[in-house]
Amino acid sequence: MELLSLRRLQLQAGVRQNAVGELLRIGDAAGLQSLVDLPDEAHGEVAGFHALQRRIGLDLRHAEIRIADQFAIERLHLLLIILIGLRRRAAGLTGELREWLDSRGKGPKPVYDGTIKSLIAVSRKTAESPYHSVKHNTRRMYDESLDLLEVTVGKRRLAKLTGLDFRRWYNELKAPIEHTEKEIAAAKKAGVPLSSKPPRMRRAFKAMQLLRIIIKFGVVANITDCFRLNTVLAEMDFASPPARTAFITFDQVKAFCAKAIEVGRVSMAQAQALQFELTLRQADVIGQWEPADPDDGGIVDRGQRWSGGVAWNHIDAKGILVKETTKQIDPNQVHVAEHDTTAYPFLRSMLDLTPQEKRFGPIVIDEASGLPYRYRHYAEVWRKIADEVGIPRHVSNRDSRAGGMTEGSDAGADIEHLRHHATHSNIATTGRYDRHTLEKTRNVAKLRVAHRGTKNSL
Known about the structure:
- By secondary structure, the protein is mainly alpha-helical.
- The protein contains 17 helices and eight strands.
- Strands 3-5-4 form a three-stranded antiparallel sheet. It has a three-stranded antiparallel sheet with strand order 6-7-8.
- The longest helix has 31 residues, at 73-103.
- The protein has three domains: 2-103, no CATH class; 116-234, no CATH class; 250-457, Intergrase catalytic core (hpI Integrase, Chain A).
- Residues 1-20, 26-71 and 426-435 have low confidence and may be disordered.
C-alpha cells in the first residue's frame, strides 16, 4: 500500500484525471484548505478542555492518504465527504471552545461604544451582570432575546433613543410572521383564503424585558446613557402574552409513547410518561447541560456537564420517586418531587421497558448518542413523533405538565393535593420532608387513573 497525495495520484493514475481534478475543485469550493484556525491566545488555555486540546488544520491539496487501488476514485469521493464533515465539526468545536474561554474570562473584553450591540456584549462578558446570576437554561432564553435585539436594533445608539423607539420596536417584534410561499401556494390550490397569523407577543414581550435588564445593568455599570433610558422604561408598559391554554391528553400521550417505542425511542416514551403522569417539568426529567470543567466529574461532554434530570437512583425499590427539582425559588427551601410511580400503571409499563440490569444513571438517554438529550434535540425528536401521531402543532412537550394537572382537576382532585402534585413539597434547610406530600400525590393519582376508566366506559 503506497502513500500518495491527491496531486501525485492525479499524475500516477494515468486515467480518470478529470475525476481527480473535479474533486480538487469541489474541495476548493468547500473551503477545505483550512478547516479551522483557533485564536492564538486560546492555545495556552485549552489544556483539559474536553475534545478540544489540539489545533485542527487540513489542506486538501496536500492531504496524505493511503489507497490500495490508485484507480478507485470512488474512495476519494468518500474521503471528501469525511473531510467536509470534519470541517463542519471543527467549526462547531471552535465555537464551543471560544464560548468556554469567554465563560472563564479568557476571551476579548468588549468595550461600550454607545450602541445597543455593545451594551449587550458588555453585559454578557461582565461577571457581575444579571446575565451571569441566572441558571444556564434561563441564560439560554436570555440569549434568544438578546440575539434578536442585536440583529434588529443593535446598531442604534442609546443617546438618540426615546420611548417612542421602544414602543415601535415592540410593535414591530410582535407583528405576525408572514406566510411562506408554500403556504400561499397550498391555499391558492385549495381555493381558500389565508387567515392572518397570530401576533408574536411573547417574542416582543421577552425582548422588552431583556432590554430593561441590560439598561438597568448599564445604570449599575455607570453608563451615562442608561440612566435616562431607565427612567423612560420605568414609565412604559408592554402587554404580556396571554397564558398558554394548550394541554396534552392521556390519549395523545399513549399514542405518542407507542410511536416512540416503534421507532426505537424508548427513553423518549419514558420521558413523556414521566412528564405527564407526575406533572414534572421538562428539565426535571431530561436534565440540562451546563458549562463545566471536565475535572468536575459526572457526565461531561464537549465542555458541558449534565445535571438535574431524573435518574434510576431517584426511584427506590418500592417505586417511590424522590427528587429535588431544578426550579429553586427560595434559597432557604429545597423543592422536592415525591411520587409513588406504582400508582400510575401506564407509567410503570413504560419504566419496565428498561431491564433491571440497565437501571442505572439517567433514565432518559438519547439512543443515538448514548448520552442524555440536549434541549433542542429533544424538542426536535419530540415534535417529529408528535406530528406522526397527529398531536396538533400548537401543543408542545411543555404542555405535558398542564395536561396532567387538567386531568387531575377534571377527575375532581382537591386543589391542595394538586398543588403538592405539581408544585412539589418543600424541605426546609433542616432537611425534613412534608410527610403528607406522598399521601396527597397518591390521592391525585388514584383519581386520575379512575377517571380514565370512567371515560373509556362511556
